[in-house]
Amino acid sequence: QVQLVESGGGLVQPGGSLRLSCTASGFNLGGYSIGWFRQAPGKEREGVSCISSSDRSTYYAQSVKGRFTISIDNAKNTVYQQMDGLTSEDPAVYYCAAGKYAVLYERPYDYWGQGTRVTVSS
């Protein structure tokens, strides 16, 4: 069974850090491009970061560039998103997705996780 499971969300103070994990089962993440998306209340889901299956190039939304880092551990079949300098603009449910192309929009992604919630509050 193909499955993506996110973890690592939680409550953090402004300026704090979290590391999200996305672990795959039933398929090898190494053969896919992986994206992180987020959806805040009342807003559409938006692409945050992605990593290419071909050369592991990374891409970031302007709003998170320099603060978030996407990486992959093939041995653990897991993708991470390190999030530093979290602000009041970052709370959302964060989703990972696997697909053929590393892009910051949803359509090319075939598999999705269930999401993990990030809250930023003092």
State the oligomer.
single chain
How confident is the prediction overall: mean pLDDT?
Answer: 96
What is the H/E order? EEEEEEEEEEE
Structural class: mainly beta
Work out the helicity level.
Answer: under 10%
Unreliably modeled segments: none
* Count of helical regions: 0
Profile the largest sheet: 7 strands, mixed
Query: What is the β-strand count?
Result: 11
Q: What portion of residues belong to β-strands?
A: over 45%
Query: Quick one: overall form?
Result: globular
- End-to-end C-alpha gap: 40 Å
Global Rg:
13 Å
Give a description of the structure.
With 122 residues, the chain is an all-beta fold. 0% of the residues lie in helices and 50% in strands. The strands form two sheets. Strands 2, 4, 5, 6, 9, 10 and 11 form a seven-stranded mixed sheet that branches. β4 (33-39) and β5 (46-51) form a beta hairpin. The N and C termini lie far apart (40 Å). The mean pLDDT is 96.
